[in-house]
Design a protein that fits this description.
heteropentamer; A: about 425 residues; ABC transporter involved in vitamin B12 uptake, BtuC; C: about 325 residues; globular; binds adenosine-5'-triphosphate; binds magnesium ion
């Protein structure tokens, strides 16, 4: 076969401009990370950004399992937590002995810890897949979380282990006391981890992970041992989870049993799925979303858990591919330059949907007022909007918004569906014609 | 001529039922050998035994003289024996290109590499492209395998099987469900792709069997009742009775 | 010694049956539909609160009937309008759906009944000790729980044996269309199964509510122990779940009664080791880790026998 | 107008919300009370509610958020893990941000370590730590000859473990004749069936049980005991917590369950009874935290004394401050470790006289069994505090 | 008239597969639907069963069944054997057959034991999971399973695919036996031999439409149709 023929058959190599675009994205991301604190400079937003960075790494590491290799884990926090604990101990030991190891290297220790435990536990676990794997991970997570309270000298019992990150060997005169320095530390590690994990998807191993996810049986007949593939993926996932855990430990200067718990494991599953496990950036989007939501929602309303639950139900029902899936659906339209055709019908649908949501919130908050705080002033605030829970006008408005919004929204969305079908067909045709 | 595969006294039982009863079979290197027999005779089971999907109850299976009974499928595959499946068995969510590439990776020595960019492996790229052309799916390169038509999936199934460059190839009913024209094309394809390699094929379509095979073995109730050249088999009364029936006679 | 064994066995059986009572609905849903229903405990909680409220109005016995029907209806509605749409997107989607549901139910219960435990009491006619062994009372109410568990077990066993619902559901998991072509209304059966599963959870709630704590976080506190029961028993096996419940009940109860630790076996650690983390392991008693033993059992079972004790299929 | 902001960091959602909301209402009531008298140094007091979901990390985020919003005083109580993390965080924050110091008023987290090895200038505790309560309890036991065999059952985490070890140590010293017939630890909030534990207690022949259990762990424990017909006295830390009284009433353990607190509704002290009445009328809850009253009142007094709202100055003013507590008697804030010492009561739950306060509408209430005066509650400390 | 189809259209997404199919089957009749790969024969039967949304009229025993859920269609007496042998792999052969029974209280003329007697292969495997059956055994199982529901008309899609020649004959015999017991049959086939042997009438399909209707002998005589639409 001549080179010419094969290169016409194989997918085209990225052109120079493609490659520029590709590297441009990373550089742009780096720049954004760099200037972010200049735009939002309050201590609170620094903390938020730091947490978002950590959960991005964590969610991406989780997606190595779920999205890429098809392993549903209920115990990913184990590696996150152990990474965190090891990092805290390392900070304490290094600080105590005054060894010349600076703080920015500590996440590596967490990573290695995560890797070590994943490698240790993973071999038997990854022999199974599917529900059996999920249940083993669940049981194991329970075991580890419980022993965290029993093995007190290592896990520090309920209070956990704390450390002082400023007591380490200093590089470039950075003390790592102020949150801004921690932010940059986390941002740098996040960028590195994202790039590393992205690169991982583009390796032979990354591809075989996908193959194992799709059809582990057939994988055996192209020379691979699916168990080994799962195992290596599991180790990588543990490694990056450990890095995330260590960063969290550095950020909070404490590691405790909450790091290992079911809540942590559940949150990362949420984040990855909500963002969209089918896409590399899905978990990133999900991590941002879930972190910001869980930080912010409790300020807005007392019953944030209810909204949280309803929101997840809604995403699972209406956006099975996650938020990213929803966005990616529009790619063919964007390519054909036909996105604008959809916008009017979206606007039409958004209005009643919004009304429905507002109505629901009004109803929920009013009910909450009457059942939870019946003795208090009925002039309450939810999501920053003040209203009078005692006034019949409020009730009528809520009822009208819910019923009217629901009826109109249902109509409008089926309209959207029709427009979608025709636009998509047209877009496909146009792209094909090119 | 050296032997590629040799089965010696192979038996396989599931519980009390003995599905394969004392099979002895030798397939020479470079030979195209067809395995035919009524449904349920144990042809697919024989494939499963040779490819490591199942472990024989007794007996030994030699691949180029090496004992492979009891090895795992991937170990056998790494010894350059590859098989296809009677029921299409591809990576449904991955594109045709990715399907083939996965099949090429181990053989080109990239194994579990996580430090190489998969798009920068020229050998892999070329081999994949080659196979893609061979199975005439160039135009479907970026379509997820699950969305291919049945015949295309069968072609892909063959493509994955041969992509690793194995020199012993087992095909289980590769043309099942294809139309006559497609079957013809598939036969040409198989003939070309297995040039110089050892082929063991299971088929119910007699035109394929007689058109392709150098030798034929007939398996009935887990036993080989006849083995020989196409002409010998065609003339064999026992075979006619047990398998071909009056129609093909 | 005899006292210990008799009492532990009794307690173990009682606890095991309580577990089975709570897990029976999950067995139905998880092992038949394959839905990892994390909201199961929430339906259990709904059962308890419905039971509490209805028994306030009409008494305990009507509550025992009405509350499960209500919860079952809610469950069926959840299947009809939610899970059914999610089903095609796979198990993870179903799981997250039920996750979200669990969140919402907990908060809704908190909104309606408040967050402090409610005063849900057992019916007066069962409020007496059934018998006394070694000066330990066994209240009639516990015997009632035991009886209900056994009745549910037998009834389910018969129902699944007699009807072909189990087979239909199992077939429909892989080939829903084909089952439809054979004349079975798959959707209704799924809804029914989910409804029955949630109703069973509610039965457990009505009955266990008074003897445990009826509170809006009771679902969360139950944790994944019910999954342990179902998985250890083996997916698709009701007798398996029954045996696993007993096994876990006995295991945990007997473990509680053992005070042994590595230290009591080999003597305390030397002073140079006593300060290290080894010391913790050394001094942990079996009793101390009894409640986490089921998880250990789960992990070991899945590693060595992924089908579970009596399971028929792996996933 | 500028206000004195107090960040209230406790669970306002999830499992711990019932407790956190009760605390919030208490502090809001206290703020209203202060404001009615003109606030602190003429400034109104504002309580800023911050939901930490009982999670230490979340607490730190909330603390950071509060500090951004200009809060210089935070108060927290639920969960020693949260308290430890918070104290650590604020100590470091103060070191790293001189001039912007923050104080942390702890009203309920009782882990002794916070006023011992991990003490901090920024941390002040108004609740008696678990050692103090045990000191008080064992001082009471010392004089109660009927107690002969004691069984310890506790949750397996730092608080439970510290209850258990101090109980052993102090009993051994004060009443060596008391036999510890059992010493049990069980995982936190994981047990649904306490029958096996009750069986063990039964078999041990104990006459008293000492437990630090809280939440469903105490409720289920008591119910299981009642079911099995176990007849012992229960010495508890938290039987009075939300849901506890309901459970005791359900179990019918009339005056069998004792609680060690710094006060309770029926204390024989007019001022506190009046306070309780007013509080219940307005808030609709019983006053769980008499110490919160002491905390806010002392805070106001300290600010007035320092004539400043600067946390350092307020902190210095609080050190060593003597104060007449709500339930009567004098307490003082020990300067060495910032632990408040006050009279401790042992009360039992059951039938009450007409006119007395009941709990959770059960018709039963707490009755005083013993009062341990401040001097008998003092325990040593290992605290070596860095002062600004 | 048992089944009557008028102007049936069907789509996969936007692609128009059936473009106005007209056909009918009388009670007790054996009719074959022939045609090349991909012309829409399977789609026709799927549309009748409601697996693909049908547009047009489908009258079964005079009742319009277009748009009904498939279980209702099945209950009216229409049986369907799909082309990919959707056996239930986890269930045993016997359980598979049992699921074919629509109403256990009122079994039809096909008895489970008779079925097993007819196919010794199946009998030997009666209690093994159907997933491990050989390809041919699966095919037989699917047909038998549908018969258990006692249909008045069975639609069988490519029953001989992947069968050994001798089994092809057996399946032919089975189909003839089914017809003899008074069940109407719609046979979707590619191989002419069987169809020609047992059909009363044949339809040839091309590009989503019926392009020929007549007796097997008519088809044999009409080489133009055979050449253009059947590529023999
Ligand atoms: N795991 C198993 N357990 C029990 N019986 C089995 C198992 N696997 C195969 N069999 C039986 O072994 C026999 C041989 O099956 P096999 O699939 O090898 O047939 P085959 O010759 O390939 O037939 P076909 O041409 O129809 O594909 C069949 O009767 C089948 O039911
Ligand atoms: N699920 C599907 N989605 C999209 N197109 C489909 C789908 N199934 C079938 N088609 C297309 O519809 C057309 C008709 O398919 P159908 O299965 O009815 O053909 P057939 O006549 O039965 O041929 P075959 O011999 O392949 O069974 C084909 O072109 C096929 O590619
Ligand atoms: Mg076969
Ligand atoms: Mg077809």
């Amino acid at each position: 076969m001549t080179d010419l023929a094969s290169s016409s058959v194989a997918p085209p190599r990225p052109t120079l401009s493609d490659r520029m675009k590709f590297y441009g994205i990373w550089i742009l991301t780096g720049l954004v990370l760099l200037v972010l604190p200049k735009v939002f400079s309050s201590g609170g937003s620094m903390t938020t950004f730091s947490l978002v960075g950590i959960s991005i790494i964590f969610a991406l590491s989780y997606n190595i399992l779920l999205g890429q290799t098809g392993m549903l884990s209920f115990g990913h926090a184990v590696y996150y937590g152990l990474g965190g604990f090891l990092a805290i101990h390392a900070i304490n030991i290094v600080g105590f002995h005054k060894w010349p190891i600076p703080l920015p290297l500590m996440p590596l220790i967490g990573g290695v810890a995560g890797l070590f435990f994943a490698a240790l536990i993973g071999w038997v676990m990854t022999q199974r897949s599917g529900t059996a794997f999920a249940m083993i991970s669940l049981g194991l997570a329970e075991l580890v979380a419980s022993s965290a309270l029993i093995l007190r000298s290592f896990f520090g019992g309920e209070a956990g282990i704390s450390a002082n990150r400023t007591k380490l060997f200093k590089v470039f005169g950075l003390s790592f006391g102020p949150q801004i320095q921690i932010y940059y530390l986390i941002a740098a590690w996040t960028l590195i981890a994202i790039i590393a994990m992205y690169a991982l998807t583009r390796t032979p191993l990354g591809r075989m992970c996908n193959a194992v996810r799709d059809n582990p049986e057939r994988v055996q007949f192209v020379g691979y041992d699916p168990h080994v593939v799962r195992y290596i993926a599991f180790c990588f996932s543990g490694f990056f989870a450990g890095i995330a855990g260590a960063l969290a430990a550095i950020n909070f200067e404490i590691a405790n049993s909450a790091y290992l718990g079911a809540v942590q494991s559940g949150t990362v599953l949420f984040a990855a799925y909500i963002g969209g496990i089918g896409f590399f950036i899905g978990p990133i989007v999900g991590a941002i979303f879930v972190t910001v939501l869980s930080l912010g929602l409790s300020d807005l309303t007392q019953v944030w858990q209810l909204y949280f639950g309803l929101f997840f139900i809604a995403v699972v029902l209406f956006a099975p591919g996650g938020i990213t899936g929803l966005l990616m659906m529009h790619r063919p339209l964007v390519r054909a330059g036909m996105l604008s055709r959809m916008l009017p019908s979206y606007a039409m649908a958004a209005l009643p949907t919004l009304a429905l949501c507002v109505g629901l919130m009004l109803m929920i908050e009013t009910i909450v007022h009457y059942t939870v705080n019946p003795n208090e002033d009925p002039h309450i605030q939810a999501f920053g909007i003040p209203f009078d829970a005692a006034s019949p006008i409020t009730w009528v408005t809520a009822a009208v918004l819910i019923v009217g919004g629901f009826l109109l929204a249902r109509r409008a969305w089926s309209r959207v569906g029709e427009t979608w079908d025709t636009t998509l067909t047209a877009a496909r045709a146009k792209v094909h014609a090119l | 001529m050296s032997t590629a595969i040799e089965l010696r006294g192979v038996e396989k039982s599931f519980g009390v039922t003995k599905v394969i009863q004392n099979i002895n079979l030798t397939i020479a290197q470079g030979e195209r050998h067809a395995l035919i027999g009524p449904n349920g005779a144990g042809k697919s089971t024989t494939f499963n035994l040779i490819s490591g999907y199942m472990r024989p109850t007794t007996g030994s299976i030699l691949l180029r003289g090496e004992e492979i009974a009891g090895m795992k499928p991937f170990q056998i595959n790494r010894r350059r024996l590859s098989r296809s499946f009677q029921v299409t068995n591809v990576f449904a969510n991955m594109t045709v290109w990715e399907n083939l590439r996965c099949a090429v990776l181990w053989a080109t020595g990239h194994r579990y590499a996580f430090w190489k960019n998969i798009d920068n492996l020229p050998v892999v790229r070329e081999r994949t492209a080659q196979i893609l052309e061979d199975i005439h799916l160039t135009s479907r390169r970026d379509v997820p395998a699950g969305l291919l038509t049945y015949a295309e999936q069968r072609a892909l199934e063959i493509g994955i099987t041969i992509a690793g460059g194995a020199d012993v190839i087992l095909l289980d009913e590769p043309t099942a469900g294809m139309s006559n024209a497609e079957t013809e094309r598939a036969v040409t394809l198989i003939r070309r792709l297995t040039e110089g390699r050892t082929l063991l094929i299971v088929e119910h379509d007699m035109s394929v069997v007689f058109g392709l095979a150098d030798r034929i073995s007939v398996l009935v109730y887990g036993q080989i009742i006849a083995s020989g050249t196409p002409d010998e088999i065609r003339g064999n009364l026992k075979v006619k009775e047990a398998y071909l029936g009056e129609e093909a006679a | 010694m005899l006292e210990l064994i008799v009492i532990s066995t009794l307690n173990g059986v009682l606890y095991g049956m309580l577990l089975f009572l709570m897990a029976s609905g999950l067995t139905v849903i998880f092992s038949m539909l394959g839905v990892l229903n994390f909201a199961h405990a929430s339906f259990y909680m709904l059962g308890a609160f419905f039971g509490f409220q209805i028994s306030r109005w009409f008494g305990f016995w009507p509550a025992l009937l009405i509350a499960p029907l209500l919860a079952g209806a809610i469950g069926a509605a959840v299947e009809r309008f939610g899970l059914r749409r999610v089903h095609k997107n796979g198990h993870v989607a179903e799981l997250l759906f039920t996750f979200g549901l669990a969140f919402a139910i907990e908060e809704i219960v908190g909104i309606i009944w408040g967050k402090v435990p409610v005063d849900y009491r057992q019916p007066d006619i069962l409020d007496f000790p059934a018998f006394t062994i070694f000066s330990t009372n066994y209240p009639a109410y516990k015997m009632f729980m035991l009886a209900v568990s056994v009745v549910i077990f037998i009834a389910l066993l018969l129902a699944l044996k007699r009807t072909r619902i189990g087979l239909i559901v199992q077939a429909a998991l892989t080939h829903p269309h084909m089952v439809g072509h054979l004349g079975h209304n798959v959707e209704r059966i799924f809804m029914l199964v989910f409804g029955v599963g949630t109703a069973l959870a509610a039965v457990a709630g009505v009955i266990a509510g008074p003897s445990l704590v009826t509170q809006s976080n009771m679902a969360a506190l139950l944790g994944p122990i019910l999954f342990v029961v179902v998985v250890v028993g083996g997916l698709g096996s009701l007798p398996g779940a029954f045996i696993a419940s007993l096994l876990i009940g006995l295991l945990q109860t007997f473990a509680v009664s053992i005070n042994g630790s590595l230290a009591s076996l080999f003597g305390p650690l030397g002073p140079d080791l006593a300060a290290t983390w080894l010391n913790d392991i050394w001094n942990v008693t079996i009793a101390q880790i009894a409640p986490i033993m089921p998880y250990l059992l789960l992990v070991l079972i899945l590693i060595f026998r992924p089908m579970g004790l009596l399971g028929t299929r792996e996933t | 107008q500028e206000t004195v902001k107090i960040g209230y960091i406790d669970p306002l959602s999830g499992g711990g919300a019932s407790v956190g909301e009760g605390g919030l209402k208490t502090f809001q009531y206290l703020a209203d009370e202060l404001n009615a008298k003109g606030g602190i140094l003429g400034k109104k007091v504002e309580i800023v509610p911050l939901d930490n979901k009982t999670n230490p990390q979340e607490s730190l985020i909330q603390a950071q958020k509060a500090i951004d919003a200009g809060v210089r005083y935070v108060t927290q109580g639920n969960g020693s893990s949260v308290a430890g993390a918070l104290s650590d965080f604020i100590t470091k924050y103060n070191e790293r941000n001189p001039g912007k110091e923050v104080l942390y008023f702890n009203y309920a987290a009782v882990d002794p370590i916070l006023t011992n090895d991990k003490c901090s200038f920024a941390h002040f505790r108004w609740d008696a730590n678990s050692d103090i309560k045990m000191e008080a309890l064992t001082n009471y036991m010392k004089d109660t000859p009927a107690i002969k065999k004691v069984y310890l059952i506790n949750q397996d985490y730092s608080f439970g473990q510290s209850v258990r070890s101090t109980a052993r140590a102090m009993l051994a010293k004060k009443r060596p004749d008391i036999q510890i017939v059992g010493d049990e630890l069980h995982p936190l909030l994981k047990i649904t069936d306490f029958a096996p534990y009750i069986a063990k207690i039964q078999a041990s022949g104990a006459d008293s049980v000492v437990t630090g259990n809280w939440g469903q762990d105490i409720a289920l424990l008591l119910k299981a005991a009642a079911d099995a017909g176990l007849k012992v006295n229960w010495y508890t830390y938290y039987a009075g917590g939300a849901g506890g009284p309901t459970a005791i009433k359900q179990a019918g353990l009339d005056h069998k369950v004792f609680q060690i607190t710094e006060g309770f509704a029926n204390v024989d002290h007019k001022a506190s009874q009046d306070y309780e009445k007013a509080f219940r009328a307005k808030v609709g809850l019983s006053l769980w935290y008499p110490r919160a009253v002491n905390e806010m009142r002392m805070f106001a007094a300290a600010a007035e004394k320092a004539k400043s709202l600067d946390p350092i100055k307020v902190g210095k003013a609080l050190e060593g401050m003597k104060f007449e507590v709500l339930d009567g008697g004098e307490g003082f804030m020990r300067a060495d470790d910032h632990q408040f010492f006050q009279p401790i009561y042992i009360s039992s739950f059951g039938e009450i006289k007409p006119g007395q306060f009941d709990e959770e509408n059960t018709g039963w209430g707490w009755t005083q069994v013993a009062k341990v005066d401040t001097p008998q509650t003092i325990v040593p400390t290992t605290c070596k505090m860095d002062r600004p | 008239m048992m089944l009557e189809i008028k102007d049936l259209h069907a789509y996969y997404g936007k692609s128009h597969i059936l473009q106005g199919v007209d056909m009918h089957i009388d009670a007790g009749e054996v009719v074959s639907l022939l045609g090349r790969n991909g012309v829409g024969r399977s789609t026709t039967v799927k549309a009748i069963m409601g697996e693909v949304p049908p547009h047009g009229h489908i009258l079964f025993k005079g009742k319009n069944i277009a748009g009904l859920p498939s279980y209702k269609i099945a209950h009216l007496g229409l049986g369907y054997v799909p082309e990919h042998r959707d056996i239930f792999p986890g269930l045993t052969v016997r359980q598979n057959l049992m699921l074919g029974i629509k109403n256990p209280r009122n079994p039809g003329k096909w008895k489970l034991e008779d079925m097993l007697d007819m196919f010794s292969n199946l009998k030997a495997r009666a209690d093994t999971p159907a997933g491990v059956l050989s390809g041919g055994e699966k095919q037989m199982l699917t047909i038998c399973r549908t018969l258990m529901g006692d249909p008045e008309l069975v639609m069988i899609d490519e029953p001989t695919e992947g069968l050994a020649p001798i089994i092809v004959q057996q399946v032919g015999d089975l189909i003839a036996e089914i017809a003899r017991r008074g069940v109407a049959i719609l046979l979707v086939e590619q191989k002419l031999s069987i169809a020609m042997r047992i059909s009363h009438r044949v339809y040839v399909m091309g590009h989503g439409k019926i392009v020929f209707e007549g007796s097997p002998d008519d088809l044999k005589a009409n080489s133009a149709v055979r050449k253009e639409w059947l590529e023999v």
